[in-house]
TrEMBL record:
<protein>
    <submittedName>
        <fullName>Uncharacterized protein</fullName>
    </submittedName>
</protein>
Length: 73
């Protein structure tokens, strides 16, 4: 049984949809691998940046906890 023929939504080329193909079902292999190579814009952080983000998150959690569980008298 042959594989179904699909049309890529990015480049409009026809391709065979194979079961173990990496990427998306509506994109050809070339377009799927080109997007997978992008790192997503993530940046490396040093220890000071991680510490400041962790402290901000801790303060945010404490504020939410106080808002949710304080007793109104």
């Amino acid at each position: 049984m042959p594989f179904p023929i699909k049309v890529c939504v990015v480049c409009s080329e026809e391709f065979e949809l194979k079961p173990d193909k990496p990427g998306f079902a509506n994109r050809c292999w070339e377009c799927s691998t080109a997007e997978a190579d992008d790192d997503g814009g993530k940046q490396k952080m040093d220890a000071d940046e991680r510490k400041s983000i962790a402290e901000a998150n801790e303060a945010r959690r404490a504020a939410m906890k106080n808002l949710l569980y304080r007793k109104d008298s």
